[in-house]
Structures are given as C-alpha cells and as structure tokens.
Design a protein that fits this description.
- The chain is mostly helical.
- The protein has 20 helices and five strands.
- The strands form two sheets. It has a three-stranded antiparallel sheet.
C-alpha cells in the first residue's frame, strides 16, 4: 500500500482531515507502543543484557566510571552533587515509586483492592509470597551476620517483567489470572515499600522526618482544599523528596507519599459538564462558517477553546499523571536502572568464591522456590476455606504459572540488594542470584501458562476483557484492552454485540468474553461464556458444548 493510499484509508470517516489522518494513525501506534507491557519488558531485558555484556569486557572500567561521574550544581561556595548512578537510584527511582503509588491508589479506589472479597486471594497470596522467601533466605543466612540483613531481597515481584511475560500469551490466558498477578504484585510492592522504609534506611533524623511530615500534611491539605492542578503537587513533592532524602529513610518513599496525596477526583461537576458541553457544541456548530478560514473565526475558536480547556480538566490529576509517567518510567527510567545495576562481572574476580556465599542460595531459592510455594499454598488455603474463589475462567494450572512468575523479582530485588548489603561482592552475588532466578522463573512460568494456553487453543477459545469506550482503567491495561477491542470489532453478529453490551452494563462496564475460534485459531462470529450466576459473564454454552467452525 502506498503512502497516499494509506493516508486515504486512514482518513476515511476520520475525525481528522485526510491530509493528517496518516500522521494521527502513526501517533496512535506510537502511543500503543509506549503503553505495551511486552515491549517495556523487552527494553528492560535489552538494558540488563547490555549491562552484563559490558561488565565482562575491557570497557567496563570506563562504563563504571561514567555512571559514577559526579553531577550537580553550585551557587557561590554552596554546591550539591551526586553520581549519575545515585541520580538514577535516588531520584529517578522515586519517580518509579510515584507511578507505583498511583497504580496502588487506582486499585484501592476503583480497582481490585476496593472489594475485599475479590482482593483477598491476591493479597493473602502476596503475604505467602513474602513469608516463604524470607524463611528460605534465613535458612541459609540466619547465622551469617554479613548477609542475614538481606532477607528482604527475594520478597518482591517485578510487575513489569511478570506481566510482560504473561502478555506474550495474549488472550489465551484468562484476564482474571492477569488481574490476580498484577494485584499480587501491587500488594507485594506495598509490603516492599514498608520493608524499605522500616528496615533499609539509615538511622533517621528526627528533624528531617518532622519536616517531611509537615510537607506531607501540606500536600494532604492541598488535596482537601481541592487543588487539582498538578504543578503545585510536583513542586511540593520535590520538597518532600529532599526532606525524606535528608532524613535517612530511603528517598523513593517520597514518591509513594506524593501519589497518595494527588487527587483522584475531577474538579469538574460531571453532571453539569454533560449539558454544558452539549450547549458549547451546539454553539460552535452555529458559529462555524465552512467557507471561511478557521483562523478568522474568532467566536468559533473561543467556544471550542473553552470546551477544550474544561474537557481536559475532567480527567482526574492522578490519571493524567499516570498516563504521562508510564512511558517515561517503563521505557527510560527502568531500562536505565537495569543498565546501571545489572552489571555482574564474571572475569574480574569480584565474585570471589561465589558458591561459598550463602546470600546466593538464599536469594536464588527464595525467589525460585519460596515465591511460588508461598503464593500457591496461601492461595490453596484461602480457596479451600471458601473465603475466596479462583479467578474467573482460571484453574490451578493457571495459578501455578502465575505463582512461578511471582519469582521474577528483577527491579525491586536489585533495588533492595543495593540497600541491604554494604559489601560490593555480596551485592554482586545477590544480583547474580536475582538475574538467574528471575530468568528461570520467567521461562518456566511462561511454559506452564503456555501449556494452559495451548489447551485453550485446542478447545478453540480466547478470553477477551472488554469495557465500553471511555471506561477508566490503568495505563498498564491499555494494550490488553485495545487487543480485545480490535477482536470484538470484527464480530459481525448484532445479537452477540447486544449481549456483550448487556454484559458490560451488568458488570459495571466490564466483562470477560469467551470467544469461540475455529480450528485454525481464527475468530469466528460466535462467542459464548461459560454458564455462571456471575452477572459479569455472558450466558451461553459451556466449554464442552462449543462447536468449531
């Protein structure tokens, strides 16, 4: 297809003029690229591999020296400086924790953590996935004073890598398992944040802790006084970061505190906005002169500008900030963190007698065995006691695969290792254990879920999460929701579309559709969901009643 024909095709029935419709389609693809969990995981993996390769070449000394170059600013005789590595670990990672805090806030406001019965399974599983790695780590290290303090290293799941690996299976894995793993990782992150704040800071300064508390109270007051502009929060958040940094508590905690203070509501009266915006649209329609240059239609431009200014403010500040941060965090900050922290050298002798270091075994087996065992055991207990049930359309095979992926602890584990150990050799050993355990957990977890996905393919079904246009969901869900939307758009049956819309309405906008596929894996125009009393599911044939095309 030529560039002109592509532009013509993109411009058909487009909101934008034909000449720029192709540009808009490209822009949309770029946005989708930078909200892709699989590509984010790939970027991080490439950065980690690059760090490993460089660390084992003759260029490592220059590489190490570069990241430890001091940068900063000065005013007169006063100066402030830190190395590039510390900028990434102390400043950029605070932005990562800000995004984590926003994702936690979303889950606690409208997500899985709002319904205690729905959230109970992943929350309890998360505690199991923290408890057992600690036990395993201490089995190897409890009597070693140099490494005993590192018990927090194998406790956290890397949400970006874990969900990125699961996303490779697409809609062959039930959305409930993806939600289970993401909620578990969020709960994991909450525990990890508490662990970092309580156990892995320096001796805290009472003065700077008090200053940080005062600043945080100021942020809460701003929230309560309905300040909805992001700029004041960012400026005061910088002050909060400095106070926390000076206090001895790790500065990244400031990112989480700032996230909790940012409003998740809208400054616009949404009921009034519907009628007000309708009036502005009518007014713009009356003012628009199709034969006159737009630049000269001042009344028209002023009307649509007012509509645009107010419409932007409908979106809550927390949502706006999350959408802005997501691509920067997952495609810049975390790859930079991987590049500067995955530098394990095998050729310079820094590992020493690695197999004599108990930290290696505690971290490795804590992640690879402790995480899945804890997740599965606590999940089994909570399900068998009927306090919770398995995710919709999921089985214990899915749960086992998700539990193994819980052992992918890359980012948070390396972050805690840097805080837990003073000896660089032990840090390097811990990093090697983290990288190897995460690699094995990622591969094995993928294979277990692939077996389940292959069984779904043989049955000719795909699981698609769907929501109406405009429904709120976190930035990390965009790729999955867009894939489901594209597949559902291909469905031609009007009756089926009515059933899907009804399921969305009954499920507060969300539904998981089990779509029947042909033998070759292509979508057919029939879909059904397993029979259930759950209103979020479509009524239809059970899995044994489906017919292939």
């Amino acid at each position: 297809m030529t560039g002109n024909s592509a532009g013509n095709e993109a411009g058909k029935d487009s909101l934008f003029i034909q000449e720029v419709a192709g540009h808009q389609a490209l822009y949309k693809r770029i946005i989708q690229l930078f909200h892709s969990s699989t590509k984010a995981a790939a970027f991080m993996l490439i950065a980690a591999i690059a760090a490993l390769v460089i660390a084992n070449t003759a260029f490592y000394d220059q590489f190490y020296a570069f990241w430890h170059t001091e940068v900063g600013f000065f005013f007169g005789e006063a100066k402030a400086e830190m190395s590039l590595a510390h900028v990434i670990n102390d400043i950029f990672m605070a932005v990562f924790f800000l995004l984590v805090g926003l994702e936690i806030k979303y889950e606690m406001t409208v997500g899985e953590l709002t319904n205690i019965r729905q959230a109970l399974l992943p929350i309890v599983a998360a505690f199991g996935g923290v408890f057992f790695p600690i036990i395993i780590y201490l089995i190897f290290n409890a009597t070693n004073p140099e490494t005993a303090h590192g018990w927090g290293v194998p406790t956290a799941t890397d949400i970006a890598f874990a969900l990125g690996i699961m996303a490779l299976l697409g809609n062959r894995v039930p959305n409930g398992i993806r939600v289970f793993l993401s909620t578990l990782a969020v709960a994991d992150d909450i525990i990890a944040i508490l662990v970092i704040a309580i156990f892995y800071g320096q001796s805290p300064s009472a003065f700077w802790l008090a200053a940080a508390a005062v600043v945080f109270v100021a942020l809460i007051v701003m929230n309560r006084r309905h300040v909805y502009s992001l700029t004041p929060y960012i400026l005061v958040g910088i002050v909060l970061w400095y106070c926390v940094f000076m206090s001895g508590v790790h500065s990244t905690i400031a990112g989480v505190l700032l996230a909790f203070a940012i409003p998740s509501g809208s400054r616009v009266n949404l009921k009034s906005f519907i009628s007000w915006s309708g009036n502005r649209i009518k007014e713009a329609k009356e003012l628009y002169e199709p034969n006159d240059p737009v630049i000269g239609q001042k009344d028209y431009i002023e009307t649509v500008s007012r509509l645009s200014r107010v419409a932007r403010q409908v979106v809550p500040p927390a949502t706006r900030l999350e959408n802005k941060l997501y691509p920067w965090v997952y495609f810049a900050i975390l790859p930079l963190f991987a590049l500067t922290n995955a530098d394990v050298s095998f050729v310079d002798g820094s590992l020493g007698n690695i197999f004599a270091d108990p930290a290696l075994y505690g971290v490795f087996f804590g992640l690879l065995i402790g995480k899945p065992v804890g997740i599965m055991l606590f999940s089994f207990i909570i399900v068998k006691t009927k306090l919770a049930s398995l995710p919709e359309h999921a089985n214990w095979g899915h749960m086992f695969g998700a539990g193994i992926l819980g052992g992918v602890g890359f980012t948070m584990a390396i972050f805690v290792a840097n805080l837990a150990f003073d000896d660089p050799a032990i840090v390097t050993t811990a990093k090697l254990a983290i990288l190897s355990a995460s690699l094995i957990a990622g591969v094995v977890g993928f294979l277990v879920l692939f077996i389940q996905a292959n069984a779904a393919r043989k049955k000719g079904v795909a699981y698609i999460a769907t929501a109406p246009d405009g429904a709120a969901h976190p930035a990390s869900d965009k790729e999955y929701m867009e894939a489901g939307k594209r597949m559902l758009e291909e469905i031609e049956s009007p009756l089926l579309k009515e059933e899907i819309e009804a399921a969305q309405r009954e499920g507060d906008g969300y539904a998981e559709i089990v779509v029947e596929l042909g033998i070759d894996g292509e979508r057919s125009d029939r879909a059904a969901a397993e029979g259930s009393d759950d209103p979020d599911r479509l009524d239809g044939a059970g899995p044994d009643e489906r017919k292939r095309d």
